[in-house]
Specification:
globular, alpha/beta, 8-stranded mixed β-sheet, 13 helices
């Protein structure tokens, strides 16, 4: 299927496809010398978020990424890439280290949303997300966010307040899933395709609205199946995916390096000011007068 023929919900299914590249698939190809950091120093570690430091060429950078799993065991371990409060607090701890030592931050977004369980709520899930939003807005180092697959709600935005937002060609970024939106608006999750079109959650739509900065091209589509199976390592399909991952990693490496080079020409004060202005420009609205609407 040609990319121009895809509906919004087709792209949602592509964004969720289990053969798409995840953070760890690209990390070792884009960066070198990665050293992972664990734990939030308050409760525990959260495998749904991977954090650490690496090198991009001769540049030291901070890496934060949401990580899905390939098989059932991995998915359970990573909690289906739905972070808990300790995950967001771990991410913030590492971002503060990056700011302290003047390291740019690169985040990889790929989550259906923050974990909504009772235990997460008891430990302050909403507070952890809100705190990250506030702190990232004032970080005095460059921040680049990349939407790899699903960018779901506050769970994605908690590591997405960035100076540059890059988005994979067949990824999605939205305040709610199409199924959740359809269930609320029409009491029917089966109308997810209609909701997906209305949400304008695809990369072309978001670029048009100025909510993202660049689209990362993908070499080919992952085949859309109702119940896609995980490809075995070493199979022909697995080799094909390795080639796709390498092509995506090469494009991402170039785009991240280019944006970092541009951002590093700015002072810390300029970075914070421009980031603030970037998000202030989002969500413009107009209030029509009675004369304009023709209504009392």
């Amino acid at each position: 299927m040609n990319g121009t023929e895809l509906t919004a919900f087709d792209r949602v299914k592509n964004a969720r496809h289990p053969e798409r590249p995840y953070t760890l698939d690209l990390l070792e190809t884009i960066f070198t010398d990665f050293m992972e950091i664990h734990g939030d120093r308050r409760y525990s570690d959260d495998p749904a978020i991977v954090c650490g430091f690496a090198r991009l060429g001769d540049q030291d950078v901070c890496i934060i990424g949401q990580q899905k799993g390939r098989d059932t065991k991995q998915r359970q371990h990573r909690n289906f890439a739905m972070p808990k409060p300790e995950g967001y607090r771990k991410a913030l701890r590492v971002m503060r280290l990056a700011e302290k030592f003047g390291r740019p931050i690169v985040t990889f977004i790929d989550t259906p949303g923050a974990y909504p369980g009772i235990d997460a709520e008891e430990r302050g899930q909403a507070e952890a997300i809100a705190f990250n939003l506030r702190e990232m807005a004032s970080m005095r180092v460059p921040i680049i966010a990349v939407v790899l697959g699903e960018g779901g709600s506050g769970g994605a935005l908690a590591i997405g307040v960035a100076d540059r937002i890059l988005m994979m060609e067949n990824s999605v970024y939205s305040v709610i899933s199409p199924e959740g939106c359809a269930a609320i608006l029409w009491k029917d999750a089966g109308k997810a395709d209609l909701a997906a079109d209305s949400l304008k959650l695809t990369a072309p739509s978001l670029l048009k609205f100025g909510l993202i900065d660049e689209i990362v091209p993908e070499p080919d589509l992952w085949e859309i199946k109702s119940e896609p199976e995980t490809v075995a390592a070493g199979s022909e399909d697995g080799d094909e995916n390795d080639n796709r991952y390498a092509a995506i990693a090469a494009a991402l490496r170039k785009m991240i390096a280019s944006n970092l080079k541009d951002l590093q020409t700015r002072t810390p004060d300029q970075i914070v000011r421009e980031r603030f202005q970037k998000f202030r420009r989002m969500g413009k609205w107009e209030q029509l007068t009675e004369k304009a609407t023709g209504m009392p």
